[in-house]
Amino acid sequence: MLTGKQKRFLRSEAHHLNPIFQVGKTGVNENMIAQIDEALEKRELIKVSVLQNCMEDKNEVAKELAEGARAELVQVIGNTIVLYKESEENKQINLP
Q: Where is the CRM domain (predicted)?
């Protein structure tokens, strides 16, 4: 689990990132979770955008993605989800 201080740090790190995944009408699926898991291994911190036509609640989507990819949910702001997962091979972010 991340502490409040670590989440604040990750939010500031994620501020300049652009979303690299979009959740649309079809919602969350296995393929998307697998791709997000790979992206997290490479980048550690990513943003996912929830489109207007997504039928699921964005908080539910965030929970599904975090659990599926075994990642930490940093924040849900507007229609954007920020996820963090410590990389095993490409560790770049040193948490406070």
A: 1-96
